[in-house]
Amino acid sequence: MRKVSGFIFAVLMLVSLNLYAESEGYSQWLKRRDALKKDPSVARYYTFEDVKDSKSVVTDLGKDGKNLTFV
């Protein structure tokens, strides 16, 4: 029982630490991404957010709109 409670405690700590770090870092990344999308000097901008496999298309968020595909 002691090992199980220790394991549960460790998992809860990891989850709580990751949620805090991820939420702040992710929100900053979203702000930066949105600013770059509006910047007229950015010709191409790829985030690779929606890549799931080799058939995924990587959307160009910049002004050129030239998506990436794997061939």
Tell me about the largest β-sheet: none
- Report the total helices: 1
| Low-confidence runs | none
What is the helical fraction, as a range of percent? 40-55%
How far the N terminus sits from the C terminus, by CA atoms, comes to: 53 Å
Mean pLDDT: 78
The radius of gyration computed from the alpha-carbon positions, rounded to a whole number of angstroms, is 19 Å
Order of helices and strands: H
Number of strands: 0
Write up what this structure looks like:
- The chain is mainly α and 71 residues long.
- Helix content is 52%, strand content 0%.
- It contains one helix and no strands.
- It has one helix at residues 2-38.
- The chain starts with a helix and ends in a 33-residue tail after the last helix.
- The relative contact order is 0.11.
Features of this protein?
52% helix; 71 residues; 1 helix; mainly alpha
What topology emerges from the helices and strands here?
Blueprint: H1 2-38
Summarize the model shown.
The chain is an all-alpha fold and 71 residues long.
